[in-house]
């Protein structure tokens, strides 16, 4: 299914819509306090309409209510922003600004009396926000009520408005994908800014097979481009969108907005990211932020980076909010948890992320990594070419909480292998630091009786050492191989908590963990020796997910550990012979990694151009 074969720049409107003032979310599970806070009296909050009863105060100093002025001043060419609101009744509207420390000041205000759909416009200069601060508006009523509609923040437009394509990558999450498509189709104003919606379906359970698909497709109209292709992971799915857009006539200045299939989509993200991309001084990657789907008030992180020397993704940039309740308050300052200080990201996750086509032209396509670290590698490659990543506050979607996903899973293979590749490409790739990190991880997996996870790690190192030629199939074989390998290890299987194989539920005392050791290395060494000698503190017991650290689980002969998903348990049983065998195999592999690291770094860097070339992806897509 396809629509128009061009993405062309649009004539600029009189004013460029930067964001809307919304008063409630796209779903009942989302708190209205993320949009508008009723700080006094009574107010009725609807998506596009707010009714303040007499003697009420509503503040838009909220996650979705704030205009991120510090980011606009740092990256964009807009000297001022205009707020317009349509008011009926009596009351006051005021534009308020903050600074990097969160101190507020009123910028402009206007009072109306007995108004009937009166449009009030207030202007604020974007000139005192370099280190931090935002803008928002507050509303106050006296004896009468006030109805607020059509709240809009606008800036001066560019000469031409860039076309935008949304790309949704999906694999056997049919209902999730249809929900995301339907969310985009449900809101006409952001949808009008989208020229094409690419749905790249890599699953065996086709999205188009559902009756609901026809309904959603009709709502998207000729914007929809539905593509079936073999499963090449997230990297292959998202890259297909880049591939299609950059082939089109007139798309040399276009936005490509990635969207995970399993998010709760806030359609407003289209308006905010595309407006920002239209006004940046130079092309930048514009990242949307991730809020937790299971805990919708919580922000995952304000900005993150990866430590490429230690292969650690998801590091929190200093000063950024992390796992923060956006409706709560900072315990030290007593101020609302908002991102006043500007923080600069190293990369942005592809749960929702806008990439300008100019960057693709300059640095090539993503690497065929299949899954994980593809977004990190691309962000750091862009940075090396002078293109920054901005993680934009207020541009958010809800995605499954990361800490409810168990680390001991097949995806850990791609996490480790692709981390090694990214580090080889974009860091010093110091063999001593890398191998020390690998050895430490392996030791904790073995003493924690996670033998399948240890085997997963060793497979990742082994395949990295095969060199860049191993990526020629886009990761298809690796995905099949790692699942087959892990199936050989019983503790990788999740069981219902009520049916633990081989253990009567009455024989399972829940044993809490002691405090974390102050000195890790001596405790780790001690645990290794005790396990080799067959010593243990507990024969069998249950361990909660929060207590499942290696220094506790290593005290058991058999530990029934709650899975991080809370959907079941894993049974870890001590196996001395297996631990020794994996330990010997790991020692040999890590030595090989140490020896071959410089050669591997050269090989991956030399292969980068070929792997990220359009012709390589054309071959993978069999086009």
TrEMBL record:
One of its GO terms (molecular function) is glycosyltransferase activity. It holds the Pfam family Glft2_N. Residues 42-154 form the Galactofuranosyltransferase GlfT2 N-terminal domain. Keywords: Glycosyltransferase, Transferase. Its EC number is 2.4.1.288. The keyword Transferase applies. Pathway: Cell wall biogenesis; cell wall polysaccharide biosynthesis. It comes from the Bacteria. InterPro entries: GlfT2_C (IPR045699), GlfT2_N (IPR040492), Nucleotide-diphossugar_trans (IPR029044). Residues 435-622 form the Galactofuranosyltransferase-2 C-terminal domain. SUPFAM superfamilies: Nucleotide-diphospho-sugar transferases. Belongs to the glycosyltransferase 2 family. This is Galactofuranosylgalactofuranosylrhamnosyl-N-acetylglucosaminyl-diphospho-decaprenol beta-1,5/1,6-galactofuranosyltransferase. It comes from Saccharothrix longispora.
């Amino acid at each position: 299914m396809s629509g128009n074969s061009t993405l062309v720049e649009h004539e600029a409107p009189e004013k460029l819509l930067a964001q809307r003032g919304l008063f409630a979310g796209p779903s009942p599970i989302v708190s209205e306090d993320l949009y508008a806070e009723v700080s006094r009296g009574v107010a009725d909050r609807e998506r596009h309409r707010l009714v303040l009863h007499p003697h009420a105060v509503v503040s838009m100093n909220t996650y979705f209510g704030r205009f991120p002025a510090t980011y606009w001043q740092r990256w964009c060419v807009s000297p001022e922003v205009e707020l317009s609101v349509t008011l009926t009744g009596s009351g006051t509207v005021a534009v308020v600004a903050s600074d990097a420390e969160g101190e507020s000041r009123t910028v402009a205000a206007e009072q109306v009396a007995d108004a009937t759909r009166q449009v009030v416009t207030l202007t604020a200069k974007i000139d005192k926000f370099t280190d931090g601060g935002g803008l928002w508006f507050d509303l106050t009523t006296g004896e009468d009520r006030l109805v607020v509609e059509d709240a809009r923040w606008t800036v001066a437009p560019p000469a031409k408005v860039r076309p935008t394509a949304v790309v949704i990558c999906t694999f056997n999450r049919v209902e999730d994908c249809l929900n995301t498509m339907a969310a985009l189709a449900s809101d006409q104003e952001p949808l009008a800014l989208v020229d094409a919606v690419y749905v790249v379906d890599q699953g065996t359970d086709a999205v188009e097979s559902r009756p609901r698909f026809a309904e959603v497709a009709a709502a998207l109209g000729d914007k929809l481009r539905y593509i079936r292709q073999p499963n090449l992971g997230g990297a292959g799915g998202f890259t297909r969108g880049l591939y299609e857009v950059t082939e089109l006539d007139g798309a040399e200045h276009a936005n490509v907005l990635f969207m995970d299939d399993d998010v709760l989509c806030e359609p407003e993200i289209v308006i905010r990211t595309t407006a920002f991309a239209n006004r940046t001084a130079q092309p930048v990657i514009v990242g949307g932020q991730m809020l937790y789907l299971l805990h919708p008030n919580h922000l995952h992180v304000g900005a993150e980076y990866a430590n490429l020397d230690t292969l650690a993704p998801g590091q929190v940039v200093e000063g950024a909010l992390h796992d923060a309740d956006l409706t709560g308050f900072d315990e030290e300052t007593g101020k609302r948890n908002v991102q006043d200080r500007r923080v600069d990201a190293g990369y942005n996750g592809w749960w929702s992320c806008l990439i300008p086509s100019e960057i693709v032209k300059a640095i090539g396509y993503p690497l065929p990594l299949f899954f994980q670290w593809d977004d990190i590698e691309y962000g750091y490659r862009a940075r090396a070419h002078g293109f920054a990543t901005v993680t934009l506050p207020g541009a958010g979607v809800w995605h499954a909480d990361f800490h409810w996903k168990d680390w001991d899973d097949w995806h850990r293979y791609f996490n480790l292998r692709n981390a090694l590749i990214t580090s080889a490409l974009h860091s010093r790739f110091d063999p001593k630091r890398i191998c020390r990190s690998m050895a430490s991880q392996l030791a904790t997996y073995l003493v924690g009786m996670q033998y399948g996870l240890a085997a997963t790690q060793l497979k990742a190192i082994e395949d990295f050492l095969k060199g860049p030629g191993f990526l020629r199939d886009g990761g298809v074989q690796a995905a099949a191989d790692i699942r087959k390998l892990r199936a050989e290890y019983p503790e990788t299987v999740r069981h219902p908590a009520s049916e633990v194989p081989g253990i009567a539920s009455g024989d399972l005392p829940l044993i809490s963990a002691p405090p974390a050791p102050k000195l890790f290395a001596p405790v780790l060494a001690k645990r290794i020796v005790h396990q080799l000698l067959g010593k243990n503190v507990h024969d069998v017991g249950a361990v909660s997910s929060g207590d499942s650290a290696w220094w506790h689980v290593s005290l058991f002969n058999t530990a029934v550990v709650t899975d991080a998903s809370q959907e079941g348990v894993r049974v870890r049983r001590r196996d001395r012979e297996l631990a020794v065998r994996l330990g010997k195999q790991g020692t040999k592999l890590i030595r090989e990694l140490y020896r071959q690291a410089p050669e591997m770094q050269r090989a991956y860097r030399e292969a980068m151009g070929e792997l990220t070339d359009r012709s390589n992806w054309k071959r993978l897509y069999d086009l």
